[in-house]
Specification:
The chain is an alpha/beta fold and about 200 residues long. The chain has helices at about 15-25, 45-50, 50-55, 90-95, 100-105, 125-140, 180-204; strands at about 1-5, 30-35, 75-85, 85, 110-120, 140-145, 170. Strands 1, 2, 3, 4, 5, 6 and 7 form a 7-stranded mixed β-sheet that branches. The radius of gyration is 16 Å and the shape is globular.
């Protein structure tokens, strides 16, 4: 099976979740996982001036996604930071370039799943994921989230992202908070869960 993780990350938080999701997917026998990042739209000089370029160097080795590559995947897990309760412009732009795939029905029947990062605890994690699902449904994809069989979703003793919609984290307003152990474990579960369902569908 082939799992693709396609993400956009500015400060590295989404990338950290992507790594955990990839690790979880690889736990499923005979599953290959490939990470891609979407094209960046912000000019280089602004990335440097804001410090984002230094943060992005941690995943500069990840290749840039092209829409037509998604045809080869059995499941695609998308990651995005939240922008006012919705996906980032970079991710939106990438999806807006999938019109040819939509016309050809190339993604119909493939699994789609989403994970996110926000600055604050109530910064739109669930709305970003649920609104992202609209694009996946237009492509005819089968949406998979994180069921409550993942007991870490019930964690209330600490601040933690993660919902039945998908894995998530919070960076804090200054970006200083990194994904917690609980959040990374939920992300790992999501990757494994998506790969397991893809394997079962592939078998039929």
């Amino acid at each position: 099976m082939k799992i693709q993780i396609i993400f956009h990350s500015m400060s590295g938080h989404v990338y950290k979740l992507a790594e955990s999701i990839a690790a979880g997917a690889r736990e499923v026998y005979e599953t290959g996982v490939t990470l891609y990042q979407v094209p960046e739209l912000i000019p280089q000089e602004i990335l440097v001036a804001t410090g984002a370029q230094a943060s992005r160097s941690a995943f500069s080795h990840i290749p840039v996604a092209a829409p037509e590559q998604m045809v080869k995947a059995d499941a695609i897990i998308f990651g995005t930071p939240t922008r006012f309760g919705m996906m980032s412009a970079q991710m939106r732009s990438f999806l807006d370039h999938t019109g040819k795939l939509w016309k050809q029905g190339s993604l119909v029947g493939k699994i789609g799943s989403v994970f996110v990062s926000t600055a604050t605890q109530h910064g739109g994690q669930e709305t970003t994921i649920s609104s992202f699902h609209t694009s996946l449904l237009h492509h005819g994809m089968i949406i998979v989230g994180v069921p409550y069989s993942e007991q870490r979703l019930l964690q209330v003793n600490e601040v933690s992202g993660g919902s039945p919609y998908g894995a998530s984290t919070m960076s804090g307003g200054d970006g200083a908070r990194w994904p917690s152990a609980n959040e990374l474990a939920i992300a790992r579960y999501q990757g494994r869960h998506v790969a397991d369902i893809a394997k079962r569908l592939h078998a039929t």
